[in-house]
């Protein structure tokens, strides 16, 4: 079959000293590995860990996120790789045989209380904002509270008023809303509040593994209802429970089991795939970008055809992204 446009929606980078990604590195994703595995496009993440919710903490987080966004944009020279900020640009890069570089911000903590940063991040090329990371912030409760930061199990009951205002601003400027890491209450409320479809860029199915970061069937149903997409990711602990005194071990087949469950529950049009490489992702058979073809092969083995595989790898995410841009005001 023709090679699909393979878009990996969540890849971390080393910071503050990222290696030269144009060469072979010790990272899971660099340009040689992308080419080897047929990965057409990659969303690199400006990740900010949760910290103190004060002016100093928020200012440092914003500075870090924006420096990372500028770096990600600058790592693509337009010839070897292209920086892309719209679906049309991604598809044009794919048609030209040039890998596409995209960016996003992980953790609305970097926003602090300044809604103006959302438009700034979009101008810098970011395509989505992950509302929280581990730990509650000023926008929403997190699926995994940080007890070392003084978090209660639940603080806001889901979204805050600021979080709702942030979603409205994201809708206005065309920045996709990512509810990975968000508490169930926050995620369900976001699906109701957002005028545009919601994405969950790196997750798995709680029906197969009851991990706090996974989506239960009610959450999957909410994504379908809002027109969104769940990106099943290659984090072993999301896919399989860890044995006593050991780390979870998962395979490509385990990842596709979660894809199968989500497809059966909410339909093919609302499911995608991501790696979370260099942020904890990697399963036996898909440990780096150079092994990406193993996922396609497993999907084909299970009866997914070229059209379905294309939708899972990029088509569904691009459809959600286009709808987000159409909802801009």
Automatic annotation (TrEMBL):
Q: Which InterPro entries match?
A: Metal_Hydrolase (IPR032466), Pept_M19 (IPR008257)
Q: Which SUPFAM superfamilies match?
A: Metallo-dependent hydrolases
GO BP term, example: proteolysis
- EC assignment: 3.4.13.19
Gene3D superfamilies the record matches: Metal-dependent hydrolases
Query: Would the keyword Transmembrane turn up in this protein's UniProt record?
Result: no
Q: Which UniProt keywords apply?
A: Dipeptidase, Hydrolase, Protease
Drop me one GO molecular function for this one: metallodipeptidase activity
Q: What is this protein called?
A: Membrane dipeptidase
Query: Which organism encodes this protein?
Result: Roseococcus suduntuyensis
């Amino acid at each position: 079959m023709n090679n699909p446009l393979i878009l990996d929606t969540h890849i971390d980078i080393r910071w503050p000293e990222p290696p030269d990604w144009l060469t072979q590195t010790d990272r899971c994703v660099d340009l040689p590995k992308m080419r080897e595995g047929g990965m057409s496009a990659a969303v690199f993440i400006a990740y900010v860990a949760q910290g103190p919710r004060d002016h100093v903490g928020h200012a440092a987080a914003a500075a870090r996120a924006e420096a990372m966004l500028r770096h990600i944009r600058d790592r693509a020279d337009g010839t070897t790789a292209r920086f892309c900020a719209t679906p049309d640009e991604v598809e044009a890069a794919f048609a030209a045989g040039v890998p596409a570089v995209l960016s996003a911000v992980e953790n609305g903590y970097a926003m602090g209380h300044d809604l103006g940063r959302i438009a700034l991040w979009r101008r810098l090329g970011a395509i989505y904002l992950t509302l929280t990371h581990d730990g509650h912030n000023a926008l929403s409760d997190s699926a995994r509270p940080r007890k070392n930061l003084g978090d209660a199990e639940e603080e806001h009951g889901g979204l805050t008023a600021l979080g709702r205002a942030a979603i409205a601003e994201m809708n206005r400027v065309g920045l996709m809303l990512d509810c990975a890491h968000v508490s169930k209450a926050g995620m369900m409320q976001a699906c109701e509040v957002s005028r545009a479809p919601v994405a969950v860029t790196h997750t798995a199915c709680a029906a197969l593994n009851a991990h706090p970061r996974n989506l239960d069937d009610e959450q999957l149903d909410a994504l379908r209802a809002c027109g969104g997409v769940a990106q099943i990711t290659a984090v072993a602990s999301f896919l399989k429970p860890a044995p006593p005194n050991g780390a979870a071990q998962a395979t490509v087949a385990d990842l596709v089991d979660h894809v199968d469950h989500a497809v059966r529950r909410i339909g093919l049009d609302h499911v995608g795939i991501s790696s979370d490489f260099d942020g904890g992702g990697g399963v036996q058979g898909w440990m780096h970008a150079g092994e990406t073809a193993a996922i396609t092969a497993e999907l084909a083995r299970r009866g997914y055809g070229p059209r379905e595989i294309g939708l899972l790898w990029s088509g569904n995410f691009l459809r959600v992204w286009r709808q987000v841009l159409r909802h801009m005001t």
